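Contributing: when you submit paired examples, paste them exactly as shown. First protein:
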Amino acid sequence: MIWKKEANLQDLNSQSQNGAAEHLGIEITTIGDEYLTATMPVDHRTKQPYGLLHGGASVLLAETVGSFSGTLAAPEGSVCVGLGINASHLRGVTSGIVTATAKPVHIGRKTQVWQIDIVNDLNKAVCSSRLTLAVIPVEDIVK
């Protein structure tokens, strides 16, 4: 198991309250031994004007599940913040729920890299994203 911190779904989801993830309906749904999953509805909050899932919403979902994953895999007293993200949008989605799964590519002392794959209700690829995170001490977070 890669996680260095104890976590449960309720605690993770409560951390998203009053932020962008809550506004878009993102919910962490599974904590596996070496992956984390989250879901997001495809609705009026997450669609672009043509009725398709907005690419930015997919990126927000990817960064949310990736950042939570990174922080759980980081040592106590540290958190992870995004350094860079890329995304390839592979298939349009007009309704339903999309599911993102974050898996580690590299877990280092100062940086981490996560692969986040987003699929639709039929388990077909929607977006492939790569997230690079910085591992920093909690006290370095500006509040």
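Second protein:
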Amino acid sequence: MSAQLEHDEHAIRQVVAEWMAATRRGDTRRVLELMTEDALFLGPGRPPMDKSGFAAASASQTSAPAPQIDGNSDIREIHVEGNLAYLWSALTVTVTPTDGSPAMRREGHTLTIFRKERGRWLLARDANMLVKVQG
């Protein structure tokens, strides 16, 4: 593997790690910085969501008192071609409400496309097949 490919794969892994850390902190502003302006999110049983829809959904989830969101992304593959890359992962997300309600856990696979803009890898498209597994 070339040094550039190694560097790009490492940078993409860092984006995912920062996304997960910012989500845990409830830092929506930082998560939004990690995606392109035309980012699009695809999930089962719902229409595609763009960046502004993501921001609105995140704002509604972070109203006081905000639930605790935790997760783990187990990256299984990254492939880089020029300024585009994709990865697939096994993702687990647990949302724990602050009102004592049971935690909701979702698991599944994701397929994410990244685009390199101004030297930074950013999430451009994300499709996830997460399903509720408990709660």
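If you have annotations for the second protein, write them as plain sentences, like these:
The radius of gyration is 15 Å.
The mean pLDDT is 94.
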